[in-house]
Amino acid sequence: MMAKKAAQTMDLTQASQMLQWLDEERRKDKATIATLEEQARSQEQQLAQQEALIQDLQTTTASVQSLISQVTDFEQTVSNYKNEMVFLLDKREEAWKKERAEAERLRKIEFESIADHLGKLDKRMQVLPRYDESLKARQVEEQRLSEILQRLEVSVSDLDKRSDDRVQAVTYLEE
Predict the structure, then answer these.
(1) pLDDT-based confidence at residue 5 (cuts at 50, 70, 90)
(2) Running DSSP on this structure, what letter comes out for residue 152?
(3) Which pLDDT value is given to residue 158?
(4) How far apart are the first and last CA of the chain?
(5) What is the dihedral of CA 132, 134, 139, 145, to 10 degrees?
(6) pLDDT tens digits, residue range 64-120?
(7) 3-state class of 1 per DSSP?
(8) 2 pLDDT exceeds 60?
(9) Could you read off the pLDDT of 114-154 as tens digits, one per residue?
(10) Residue 66 CB burial class (10 angstroms; 0-12, 13-18, ≥19)
(11) What is the DSSP letter of 175?
(12) CA separation (Å) from 155 to 142, 152, 158, 167?
């Protein structure tokens, strides 16, 4: 019995140690479970925060996509406006070149017309010295004829006086 008692005591000691060990393991497991529960709660909070952050990011992404769409529309509008301005400037430059070419053509025609008129005027001016010479000759001739006329007038006047004197002499003689 003693052996039985010793075996029982040993079993009891072993059982007590086993219980202590099991109790210690249970406490460790409890602490581990508490730690794991705390980690799970922390991860739940992190997940909730991340979910809220994801929601904010999705809202921000939607806003950014809307802005990108607006920027793209704006860029397209600016590009269209630029293309239209380039087209209008090219069209205006082409019209300006045509106007300039037409003005140059008209200027050449006007220049040729003026040159033609000047040529004709020059030809007429070349005739003027001959007219001038002819005019001077006429003036000289008129002067000469005027002098002859004056002499003739004097002569006619003298002849008239002589004729009157003779008529008076004849009348006197007749009387």
Answers:
(1) low
(2) H
(3) 84
(4) 240
(5) 180
(6) 898 888 888 888 998 999 999 999 999 999 999 999 999 999 999 999 999 999 988
(7) coil
(8) no
(9) 999 998 888 887 776 777 788 888 899 899 999 999 988 88
(10) exposed
(11) -
(12) 19, 5, 5, 18
Cα distance between residue 155 and residue 151, in whole Å: 6
Alpha helical stretches, state H, the chain: 2-174
Q: Residue 60: which of 89, 125, 52, 148 has the closest Cα? A: 52
User: Tokens in use for 158?
Assistant: 């003298």
Amino acid present at 102? E
Nearest-angstrom CA–CA distance, 111 and 130: 29
pTM above 0.90, yes or no: no
What tokens were used for 126?
Answer: 């070349």
Tokens matching residue 22: 């099991």
Tokens representing 3 are 């052996």
Please report, as a single letter, which amino acid is at residue 68. I
How far is the C-alpha of 40 from the C-alpha of 53, rounded, in Å? 19
Q: Confidence class of residue 49 from pLDDT cuts 50, 70 and 90?
A: very high
Token readout for 71 is 């920027």
Token look-up 């205006």 returns: 92
Give me the residue label for tokens 């406490």: 27
The Cα–Cα gap between 167 and 175 comes to: 12
